[in-house]
Amino acid sequence: MKPRSIPLDSRKIKIIMADDHQIVRQGVRTLLTAEPDMEVVGEAENGRDTLRLVQKLSPLVVVMDISMPDLNGIEATRQIMAESPRTKVVALSMHSDSFFVLNMLKAGACGYLLKDCAVEELVKAIRTVVANKTYLSPGISDIVVKDLVNGYSMSEGSVFSILTNREREVLQLMAEGKSTNSIAHRLCVSTKTVETHRKQIMTKLDIHSVAELTKYAVRQGLTSLEI
To answer: What percent of the chain has pLDDT over 90?
Structure first.
């Protein structure tokens, strides 16, 4: 499915909504477009389509889910920050544990809210990040503060400390059942390069079956069981 773009209004905060559930995208779009200073200019169901829309529409804000197919929200955020650092990413996720929160913030997100938040909080978060400030919902703030106080450091067994950015992309696509040719096409590389990444992933993780790699990718939040 192609990412969907919507006509722009330069007077409003331009927002892209990225979530793999259509009902969530439509619900958030309806709520945000009711705000006089906001406009949802695009919707995407995965991280890769989100990147394409950011390049095409130059939004000020991306409201980003984490668990999305093809390219998850953490990796998509990292790439958006590299290509369009003025774009503000606000995570809207079901994940409240520190692993996801801190990795999303480390990737460059400047806001993090849970999906059970009220729409007023999401609106407040968007206006806060547009003002070049960080917004964390109260529960998330507690998590971040506790981890900082306790000297949080990235686990040595974390996929984010073991694999490179590209290896994580390949691992996610492998876990989602994509063939070598399909992965090569998506990443614009040769099949030989994909095979090299696959071998490096298995060696680094000491995991040598696709089934076990899939379980690992799910545990590490690169993909979800719903896919």
So the answer is: 74
Task: Find how far residue 94's CA is from the centre of its chain.
Answer: 12
Name the CA dihedral angle for 24, 26, 27, 29, rounded to a multiple of 10 degrees: 120
Strand order in the sheet with 61-64: 4-5, 38-44, 13-18, 61-64, 88-93, 111-114, 135-136
At residue 136, the pLDDT reads 94
CA separation for the pair 173, 86 (Å, rounded): 28
Residues written for the chain: 227
Q: What does pTM read for this prediction? A: 0.86
DSSP character for 177? T
Cα-Cα end-to-end distance for the chain: 15
Distance CA 87, CA 50 (A): 12
Alpha helices by DSSP H, 98-190: 98-107, 119-130, 138-149, 159-162, 165-175, 180-187
SS3 38: strand
Over residues 185-194, the pLDDT tens digits come to: 999 999 999 9
- As a whole number of angstroms, the distance between CA 5 and CA 61 comes to 14
Domains of the chain: 4-149 (3.40.50.2300), 159-219 (1.10.10.10)
